Amino acid sequence: MKKIERLRYIRLKLDSLFLQLVAGFLCIIVLLASLTYYAVSVSKDNIRQEIVKYNTLMLHNTMENYENHLEMIKKQMVLFYYSEPVQRLQREPHYSTYPEVIKDIQSWVTNPYLYIDNIIFYSRQHNFVLEKGTSTIPDTMFNVFMRSNKYPIEFWNQQFEGAYSNRVFPAESFFSNSFPDRKGELGEYIPIIFKINNNQDFYMAVFLDAGKMYEAFHQTIEEDLIIYNAMGETMFKRSSSDPFIPLNNLKQHGGNDFILDHKYHFYTTGTGSGMTYIHRLPVEQLTSQTRLNFTMVAVIVAVIFFSILISFFLAARINNPLKKLIHSMRSTNDDKPYRSKIPEFEMISGQLNDKDKILKQWAFFNYLKDIRSHESDIAKLKFSDKSFVFLLFHVLEKKHASWVHGSFQSWLYYIKVFIEVKLNRTFQEALTIQIEHNQILSMVFIDEVEDLQDLLSNMKSVFDHDLDSGTITIAMTSKFNHFNQVPEAYKQVHERIGNRRLIDETEIVDSFSVRPVVCGFTKEQDKAFQANMKEGNLEDLMLLMERFFAKWSSQAVSAAAWMRFADAVVDRIRQATPSDIISPRTLNEILENSEEKIRECVTTKELEILLLQWLKKISEVIQEKKEKKDGITSFVMEYINENLADEIYLDTLAEKLNISSGYLSTYFKEKTGINMVEYINEVRIREATVLLVESQLKILEVAETVGYRNITSFNRMFKKYTGLTPNDYRRSRVSHSDNTG
């Protein structure tokens, strides 16, 4: 009998939930361990072959990319060399033929898929070099603009004697010595020279960007790559460590892959160019998989051991609470259902008790994000019959606020806590969140708006004590009766916050607030402003601005209207300021971060002072420049402004002034602080910004109007000076106008 009881006890234990869980976990562990071992065993023999096959294929793709590209470049450049403009330049070189050839060069250079950085035509008889940007003498070109240690000017002179029609030379780094105090790196280029065999006077040199070609054509992770030509010269090289094996020693190893010096070498030879491409891979990467098997065994054993321990632990974690829960359910009465002895259940119970509040917050967030789902419909029912309003607290930091024991964000946090406490004391279901870095939104469920207005008046008196740190505007919506109206309420509260005024006190904006008016210059005032701006008449400008602010400061003008007016003044300053007196760069330095500074103004007085400061600085510069006005620079600036749509050459201007182009360039830079090319680009881009905002011209038409024949060059230059593309700039100005309107 005792033996039967013992067997029954053992059977009951074996059927227990704990042992069932442990057995289930162990089965999963054994199955996963077996599968892992099998996968490692099967894959170890294939890994090396796959890596070799992969690297061989990638090197072959790299070779084909280089070969196809070089062949395509040769064909295209031969056609270009024998084109009519180039042949005319060779026969009768003259300034009048330069623009057409330069334009053709730029069309090749700006094609991103050709990787051509520059094309140079060199005439020994006429001693000139023509490239993508200008014409110059050979000494300046190869010793200043494009200097190389491997390819000095003697090298380029020797190529006239070479007996070949085209030839690819090894890649080399080029740099510019335009500035004596520093060397400007241009890049690593592969030169290709095209010429006629019996012509010892004229040839064309094409410079391919070796770095961009490598990034586009090399398709393996390792950077070890070298390209030899048929004579064993290194055409291009990217190596992270040891030197490569010479080409003459390559054939000794046989096959297209071999191991040397702990590196796996892969090589192939192009059929068109005869160049050999070599890629290296550390042997450790191939053999690491074999070593990994020994490590894997140890890891698998350790994982199995810890998995068993974790299985027992998890089984106990699942089993014990259930045992206690069952015990608690059996031992407690109906008044206290299985709570007192189970902490986990107490936590679940507490969360269930807070379900209503969680659902409200969750629904609130979802509605603000415009989320629609089945669950949100459930949460939405909790608010369906309750009236509510939105409160938006807009906090603006004072410019010279001193944060001795904190920061603006810490002060904003205390403001948020204060708002939550004040609202929840009177309206227990109120929800408060921070939606922007300086905006706090509250949703308040109310029956009577008057109770909330009294509370806001009390909060206003508290906020007014912190005016040294910042000003707070409170926008309150109308009362809404259904939670479906949340999007409408959210839109209304943001519209009302835009009606705040530039005053140094806490303001409450609600349906009873006076509708703000729009302020701006009259036509006569606008004409007077632009005329005085051009002449730098500071006294007249200050009088005009003071009268304007005196008229409008006493009226209910919203902050948004003042910001629009200030932005318009800045635009008028940029348009009216004469570029031949004050350079665009100087103007940009004075008006730097103008939008940000305008929006930091708390009162109309601060805004007035800010605008007057800008007017004073610009007027002083204009007057100073007028006193120092120079005849040569004035002529150059006037000519540039009047001929923006045309090609403007330094040589043409120098010829009109009867001086050398080198002297004119140096003189202009000395007088204005900016070289002529930069000045032309700045004037063109500034005119383009005006046309983009004030006209309906297409981007291409704007580019042609200000003198850019290539839309790619226009886009690149526009983004360089404004930080935006033309399309983005036009959209941002239109969007800004709509938002502030």
Percent of residues in β-strands: 5-15%
User: What structural class do helix, strand and pairing data support?
Assistant: alpha+beta
Terminal residue distance: 96 Å
- Cα-atom Rg, whole angstroms? 39 Å
Shape: flat
Count of DSSP-assigned helices: 27
Q: Low-confidence stretches at least 5 residues in length (pLDDT < 50)? A: 332-342, 348-355, 371-381
Instruction: Count the E strands.
Output: 17
Largest sheet: 7 strands, antiparallel
This entry's quaternary arrangement is single chain
Helix content range of the residues, please?
55-70%
Mean pLDDT: 79
Keywords: DNA-binding, Membrane, Transcription, Transcription regulation, Transmembrane, Transmembrane helix
Protein name: HTH araC/xylS-type domain-containing protein
Organism: Paenibacillus albidus
Pfam family, one: HTH_18
Describe the structure.
- The chain is an alpha+beta fold and 741 residues long.
- 56% of the residues lie in helices and 14% in strands.
- The chain has 27 helices and 17 strands.
- Strands 1, 2, 3, 4, 5, 6 and 7 form a seven-stranded antiparallel beta sheet that branches.
- A hairpin with a 4-residue loop joins strand 1 and strand 2.
- Helix 15 runs antiparallel to helix 16.
- It starts with a helix and ends with a helix.
